[in-house]
Amino acid sequence: MELYKHQNIKIYNSLTGEKDNFKPINEGYIGMYVCGPTVYSNVHLGNVRTFMSFDVIFRYLKHLGFKVRYVRNITDAGHLENDADVGEDKITKKARLEEIEPMEVVQRYTVDFHNILNTFNFLPPSIEPTATGHIIEQIELIKTIIDNGFAYEVNGSVYFDVHKYDETNNYGVLSKRKLEDLIHNTRALDGQSDKKNPQDFALWKKAEPTHIMRWPSPWSDGFPGWHLECTAMSTKYLGDQFDIHGGGMDLKFPHHECEIAQNQAALGKSPVNYWMHANMLELNGQRMSKSTGNTVNPDELLSGNNKFFSKAYTPSVIRFFVAQSSYRSILDLTDDGLLASEKGYNRLMDGVNQLDHLKASKTSTLDIATWKQKCYDAMNDDFNTPIVIANLFEAVKYINQIKEGSATLNATDLEYLKTTIHAFVYDILGLKNDKTEAGAGTDKLSGAVQLLIKLRQEARVNKDFALSDQIRDELAEAGIQLKDGKDGTTFTTN
Ligand code: AMP
Ligand code: ZN
Question: What Pfam families does the record tag this protein with (predicted)?
Answer without folding.
Answer: CysS_C, DALR_2, tRNA-synt_1e
